[in-house]
Amino acid sequence: MINKLVEKIKQTNAPVVVGLDPMMGFIPEHITKKAFEEHGETLEGAAEAIWLFNKAIVDSTCDLIPAVKPQIAMYEQFGIPGMMAFKKTVDYCKEKGLVVIGDIKRGDIGSTSSAYAVGHLGKVTVGSKSYYGFDEDFVTVNPYLGSDGVNPFLEVCKEEKKGIFVLVKTSNPSSGEFQDRLIDGKPLYELVGEKVAAWGEECMGKDYSYVGAVVGATYPEMGKVLRKVMPKSFILVPGYGAQGGKGKDLVHFFNEDGLGAIVNSSRGIIAAYKNAQYADRFASENFADASRQAVLDMIDDIAGALGTK
Total domain count for the chain? Predict the structure, then answer.
């Protein structure tokens, strides 16, 4: 799957992933009204509104981007109907030819980690048959329980030719409370990056490994160090746009081949119609058009920074 992601990035010339992290406050009134008329102000109504919102954004942007990243918590909060909307979104995005990165941030050990890996990336056995569960192409994984928590994902990745993005240096302000702590003279995030590179050696695609890393755009200098530590790992870069990251901050996340990183924007794209930059041009009824323009602007910003315009 890493090979497919690389090819999709080359085809679109857009190292961009759209974060499908819907919140009810992002969804225009005409969408929620339609969903509530059919299902009432219920969990089912909320899930339907999320699905309609997602579908419109995917339809408007799928020709521009290589991948999407649905954040599972935004769906879990609506219970079983929300999880059904998550699965419906995953399947629809794959039908549209997009690579799907499930932002699940799982981190456990033993049979629990195996179950997470099977449920999201692999096939579960039911009697004499086997079935894919959520069937994302990549998922995010928390490594802080050590190799015991990551190895089950690696096993499934090898079987299914899928991938993971391991949390290394996250974009949130308090990430340094633990991730920046020095151990034997090195920050913890750098030690995790070294481990990611080692795990990746076991799972190589054509040019990059199935094992990538999450490194926030809000920490460009750390990204520069980690790029050297993990030369064969793709870096998933959150923190662009709404969290303050800009194209100029991203240069060092990429390798000399212009690849090696994919940049995420979530609410900066899906809620673009609420942003002052787009609100005067796009009414709420045209929210998907605003999302498309936000993607185009993001691609242009990154290309300008990388000198690939």
Answer: 1
CA distance 161 to 208: 12
Tell me which amino acid residue 79 is.
G
- Given 55, 105, 161, 274, the catalytic residue: 105
- 10 as an active site residue: the answer is no
Exposure pattern of 177-214 as b/e (b: 16+ CB <10 Å)?
eebeeeeeeebbbbbbbebbbebbeebebeebbbbbbb
10-residue mean pLDDT profile of the chain (309 residues): values are 93 95 95 97 98 98 97 98 98 97 95 96 96 97 94 96 95 90 94 96 91 90 91 92 69 88 94 91 92 95 83
* Residues 236/204, Cβ–Cβ less than 8 Å: no
Helices 188-201/147-160 angle, 10° precision: 30
Report the CATH number at residue 279: 3.20.20.70
What is the four-CA torsion angle of 290, 294, 299, 305, rounded to 10 degrees? 150
Distances (CA, A) of 262 to 11, 71, 109, 307: 14, 16, 28, 16
Judge whether 215 and 229 are in contact, CB under 8 Å. no
- Contact yes or no for 234/203 (Cβ under 8 A): no
Q: The domain containing residue 224 runs over which residues?
A: 2-306
